[in-house]
Write a structure and sequence with these properties.
Blueprint: H1 3-14, H2 21-42, H3 49-56, H4 66-87, H5 94-104, H6 136-149, H7 156-170, H8 177-191, H9 204-217, H10 221-233, H11 236-242
Helix pairs in contact: 2-3, 2-4, 4-5, 4-8, 5-8, 6-7, 7-8, 7-10, 9-10
């Protein structure tokens, strides 16, 4: 993990700020679409990138389920809400986490949206078993306390990755944990001035394996390396739009 390299990329991008409005708007539309498509695809949504774009424009795709349509629409709304939190420099809290989850599951599972699970779960394909549902209040309390104390001292990219992995390890909701974890990761990145990082669906297997390694063995290096890689890639659209070399 090369945090120094990422800091230099951020400094370079900062040197071009404020960016022209047309570039900001174009890049925003692009990243919101890719973020929504990939985060949903990782969880099994079958909408293609182009289909996701059409759905976000208000058009229904034949042969796709209502849930898949709602997942795209909801995720888009969750990103817009996240951006409001970034503008306010909101600190991470259980309330905001529940609000993001409520947006993700809106009209899909309203009875569980924004509420911690009341059952025990097994993550398909993972060795790690999330904590008992009876301990969730304590687990999430400790998670937020860690964030307010120890996480402050971490590099922003490592903090974002640890928030992501720590949240997924607890798995506080019955559904939607993956999407929320990636939103929380980008909340941290964006508050620190980094572009939002999009985990591509093509990296789903190494992503899951790295998370499992972190949760079972306490070895976070593979996951941190993966997040550093996608954060580095998040700068590339800016260089292209600005017409400068990386």
């Amino acid at each position: 993990m090369n945090f120094e390299k990422l800091d230099k990329l951020k400094q370079k991008l900062d040197s071009y700020r404020p960016l022209p409005a047309e570039i900001v708007n174009n890049l925003h539309e692009d990243v919101v679409l890719r973020w929504t498509y990939n985060s949903n695809a990782i969880e099994g949504n079958t909408l293609t990138l182009k289909e996701t774009k059409v759905v976000l424009e208000g058009i229904t795709i034949g042969g796709k389920t209502m849930r898949e349509h709602l997942e795209a629409i909801n995720h888009h709304e969750a990103i817009l809400y996240l951006e409001e939190l970034v503008k306010k420099d909101e600190t991470l809290s259980e309330r905001r986490i529940k609000e993001l989850h409520q947006l993700i599951l809106k009209k899909i599972d309203d009875s569980n949206a924004g509420k911690y699970r009341t059952v025990n779960v097994i993550i398909s394909g993972a060795t790690h078993i999330p904590p008992d549902h009876l301990t969730l209040v304590d687990e999430m309390g400790e998670f937020i306390e860690w964030y307010k104390t120890m996480a402050i001292n971490l590099h922003p990219v490592e903090r974002a990755a640890r928030v992501h992995s720590g949240f997924v390890k607890i798995h506080p909701f019955a559904d939607g944990n993956g999407r929320v974890s990636r939103l929380l990761m980008n909340l941290e990145l964006m508050k620190s001035g980094f572009p939002p990082a999009v985990l591509p669906v093509e990296k789903r297997l190494p992503y899951y394996e790295a998370l499992d390694t972190a949760h079972i063995n306490g070895n976070y290096d593979p996951f941190l390396d993966l997040i550093c890689e996608v954060v580095e890639q998040s700068f590339e659209p800016y260089w292209f739009a600005l017409g400068v070399k990386a």
